[in-house]
Structure formats: C-alpha cells, structure tokens
Amino acid sequence: MRTGVQSHVQYLLVLIIALGAASPAFGQAGPPMMPAAQSVVITEEDLVDPRPADTVIAITDWGDITIEDVEAWISTDQVQWLRLGSVDQIPALPDEHLRTIASEMATRITAEREFDSLQNFDKRGRLLSQFDGITSRMIVGEFVTTYIDGKITPPTDEEINDYYEKNSIEFDQKFAFRMRHLILLTYEPYVVSDEDVEVANEGDQPVEAALMAGLKAIAERVSGDPAKYEGVRLDAAGKPARYDEETADLKPLTPGEKLLVPMSEERAEQVHERLELILTEMGGEVGFEELIEKYSQTEENVRGQTTPWLPAGSRPIIPSLLEQGEKTPVDGISDIFRTKHGWQVMEVVDKKEEGIRPLDEVRNQIIGRLNRENREKLIADALEDLFQNENLEINYDVLTSGDLPSSNTVVATIGDDELIFLDIQRQWTALEQPVSRDDAYEMLKTQAGKLQIALVREKMSPVVDDASTTLGQRLQLMRTGFVGAGYMRALAMDQAEEHVTDEKLRDFYEQNKEARFRLSERVRYTSMERRLTPRQQKLSPEEQDPFLQELIGLLNVDVSTLKTAGDFEQKAEEVNANILPGDPRIPSINHLINITNLPDEIRENLSKLEVGQWSEPFTWQGFRVLSVLLQEHAPSEIQSYEDVEQRVIGGYKNELMVGVMKVIEEEFLNKSGLEILLETESDQDS
Q1: Among 533, 459, 461, 509, which residue's Cα sits nearest to residue 649?
Q2: CA distances from 465 to 112, 113, 117, 205 (A)
Q3: How far is CA 274 from each of CA 261, 338, 342, rounded to the nearest angstrom?
Q4: Residues 203, 107 share a domain
Q5: Which tens digit of pLDDT belongs to each residue from 140-196?
Q6: How many domains is the chain partitioned into structurally?
Q7: Does one domain contain both 394 and 488?
Q8: Which end of the chain is less packed: N or C, by CB atoms within 10 Å?
Q9: What is the side-by-side strand order in the sheet with 337-338?
Q10: Which residues form the domain of 426?
Q11: What is the DSSP string of 16-49?
C-alpha cells in the first residue's frame, strides 16, 4: 500500500530536473557566427556617444533594425562573443560591433523565414523538437519565478523567535573542544627476535594463543608485567594494537617485526619527570607551539596540528582527555595527564559549552529553514493548482487495475499532449502500484515530469502567446536565433557531406597525422614521499634546507634495501601512510598519461628511468621529497587511420563546415537586403 502523501520537497522534484538550467543560453545553436568568433571585451574606452533606442542602424527587406532591437537580441544571450560590462553599454557600442550584430540578426532572421516556408525540409521536425525543449525550460523557469520564488517573503522577527522557542531542542549542543598537544610516549621500541618467535610457538596451539603467549613474554621482558601485552602496538603510522580480540586476521609474530611495548612504571615516571622539565622552558619567546615542534613524539605530519572537534561523533574519547578539555580554559594549558600512549599536556584552542545555542548564533540557520519550508509549501500549492486543470484527464481505471499497462497505453491527457505508460514506467517500477485514485493522483502529481511540464505550458500559454509580454518576446527572439542558425548549419552539413570521400579523408589524415593523431609519450607511475611538517613549511627556504636534507636522507634509507618494483610499491604504501588525507595528493597515476601533462620535476625524473626503476629522492614544491617508480611506458606514436577513422571524419567535416558556413551566411546576408546606416571609417575620413 502506498503512503498517499509525498514530502513537499518531492513535489516539484521531477519538474525542476526537467527544467535544468533555464538559461537564455539554450537559444545559442552551436558556435557563434563566423565573422565574430573571437571574444570581444568592451571597456569604457571603447564606447562612443550613446544613441537613442529608436535609432535605426540598418534596414532589410523585411524591416528596420534599431538599437532597441539590438538590446533585445543581446538580452537573449545570442551574441556570445561580446563581453559587456553592463547592458547600458549597448547604445554606445562602436559602429563595427553594431554592424556585426546587425549582420548576424539579418542572416538568422532571413534563414528562419526561409525555414518556415519549407514544410518538407528533412531536418525540420528534429530542429523544432530541439527548440521545443528550450521553450519548455524557459516557460517552466518563468513559472517557478512567478508562482514559487517570486512569492517567497523573508520571515519576520516574530516568526524567527517563534520557531526558536518551539524547536529549541534542535539547537542543543554537547560539550566539545579542539586542542593541540605535546606527548611523550611511554613505549619502548622493540624488534621481535627469533627467540621471541620460538617462545610464542611452544606447544601446538592456535595462532591467537601463540600470539598472546609471545606478546606476554615480550611485555614481561620489557616492563616486568605480562599483563601489559594488550598495550603492545605496531611501530607504524597510527600505532595499531598488535593484539586485538575483535580482529579476525591475527598474524603470528615474525623475526624483525618492529613493536612498541609499554614501559615499566619506573621508566614511565621518568618520562613524566622529563615532561615536567620540558614545560619549564615555556616563557618569553618560547611558546607551547615551539615545545610541541621540538619535543612532541607524534607523527611529523600531524605534529602541532589542531584536532577536529572532540568528542568526534560516536567515537569514544579517553576520559582523562575529556576531563582536561572540560576544565582547561580556551588558550589555556592543561595539567599533565596520562593516556594509554603516554604522558601529555594540551592547549585548548576552542570550546563549545553544553546547552542551547543562543538565538543570534542560529538566526541565519532558522531563516534558511523557514525559507525552505515556505518554498516547499509554495511548490505543493503550485502543483496542486496545476492538477486542478479542468482539461486534465487521468485514466484511473488503467492506473489502478492491478495489471501492468503496455508501454503505449495513454494514462493521462492535457489538450493535445498525451502521457503514456512508458513515460512513468521507471517511477512505477520504483514505487508500489497505485491501488486507489488518490494513490494514482499523487504519483502523477509528484513523479510525472512530462505531465507537469505540459500543465505548466498550458497555464503559462496566455503569457507565452502574447507577443507584448517579455517572455513571449524572448521566446520569439530565441526561436529566430536557434532555428536560423540551426537551419544554416544543417544546410552546411548537407553540403559538406557531399564532399566526403574515402580519398579525401585519407588525404586529410596524411596532412594532419603528425599534428592531430600522434599520441604523446605516456607513462604510469607511483611515488614514495616524505614532507616537511606544517610548521617547517612556514620557515624561509634557508631555514627549511636542513630539514629537507634530513628527509632526503630518510627517503634514501627507505629505498636503499629495495630490490624490485613490488618492494617499492609495498614500502611506498607504508611511508605514504604518514601523510594526512587532507594534505596535497600523493602523485600517482594508475593509467597511462601524457608525460607532458606531468609537473616538470616528476617528468624529468621519470624520463631517466626504465620500467621497474625508481628515482633518487628529489625535492618538489619546496616542502616535499619524492622518489618515483616508473611502472609502464608507452613511446610516442602516430595512430593508424583505422584507429582514428571517426575522428578523421569529424575533423574533415568540421574543416569543410567552416568554409561552407561562411558561404551560406554570406548568401543569407545577401538575401536579407541588409543596408547598414552607420557611418564607415571611409565616410568619416571623406
């Protein structure tokens, strides 16, 4: 059974999608007219004395062209090549631009008049159908402006206050804070030995039990307390737990594996004392940020960074961290406290206290919500009004029969427009079949975009058909531009088609194969990268240099033991894991790409390599140190005629079209009887 009433948000959804962008640019049928293909930007220095709106700038066999006509033509966005500062500049445009615009108007109007006289033109139906879509967009756009957007009024202070009082629970916020911290880890670095593996594998026991036994032995050896085995972590980015009961793929210990093992309490206390001593350095020119940069034992890419709001969503937060966040004031430094990773101290950067947010803080949010509610109601009212049209006939028997109608079954009509089942079949499939008249009515009202548009067009027909209305005038001008240009283009295409032969296509290919059909050298690659910390990136180039040299040394160590491309890719995954997702993207391409499109430094290093080789570390963008691996290389080559035949045909036709279009435009210009009344430069000279 359907839920009879849809959300108001959906009421005009299909219609808005069908509307798309109701821009006058839909009237631009293809490229601008040939004489003015280059964009022209009008500045104040270009302008002349403005002419009155009724000034006749040209005469034709079918009438005059005035400044007012030019203003109306430009208002429909059909002069794509002209860039105006404002429409007020049109009466003051230089003669040469008005001459070009008048010529374009004359050719298109004359072409439209010829098109309308040819009822048997083979592309007539397609061209008119295309413009009918443009007309629908324009009409729907005007409908939305008139009956929806034009009726939205800003909410009053009383309405805003009333909403706030009734919905205050929506503005309740939990306590949250942002911080940056200095941490000294209470882990001992540890490398798994053969002996550790033997201890873990004593006896015949499952992997989980063997791993637990091995970790307990290591924890006892390092800290004296085997119970600390759960705190053992991998010495890798993020410090994941080495043993986690919720992890399904527990792996046995392996010799050489690097771990972080919790310290003994005695050693941990020494770390605590060291942190206390470090904090005594703060004062004068040494701030907390400098101490973080100098001492904090976090990954370098996040060191000194301010955290997002904590707690973050539903993720649990360490109680001691939350406690310090609550009691430390903004810009204040917390007490030293301990977490599972070590001893730390933090600076609270910002806070949001628990409670209802004040009205001033959420005022704009409330205005936005009230405007949306108002618009949704207007949408619902407008659609309901459309569907009350007395000429609308809905075939309820078909819609509620329980049988699946055939694709061509008419389910609704409005005047001469029919809605067949195929038009709503996708929505019908996505929703349950209507079982009542109300269900069927609701489905058509909220889902049948074609029917909605037909109803809008009928409601707006008095405005559209009235040549004195702005919409009626704009549609006529847009039709002239679209149909006139489209008709000339269709003629040019037919004439160009007559000249296309296999011999000429192959000649075109031979003449253009180097410039158009040569594939550039292409590569596929990946990279390994280390970066300066955000604080180091703020330093001068001279101050950054020692840190860059250090990163180069580290990356040299990273690649020094690698034997194969697979080794590089595996190591790169490990090293690159230390880079934050929000940082600039790590350069890597998983498909062949034109090598000339790559940054200079990367391209130069790749050009020295054979497939499977990687580069020496190099600096890039001033703060990044990379080594790149060449994974695949394709040399430059000219594609065969067979591989690019369709591109050859398209390119040859386009080239023909340029010349043919100029001839056709000139023919229609002559047919128009155009006579420009503006002074020419030679007239002024004489």
Answers
A1: 509
A2: 19, 19, 21, 88
A3: 19, 14, 12
A4: no
A5: 999 999 999 899 999 999 999 999 999 988 898 889 999 999 999 999 999 999 998
A6: 4
A7: no
A8: C
A9: 176-185, 342-352, 337-338
A10: 380-459
A11: HHHH----GGGG--SSPPGGG-S-EE--GGG--P
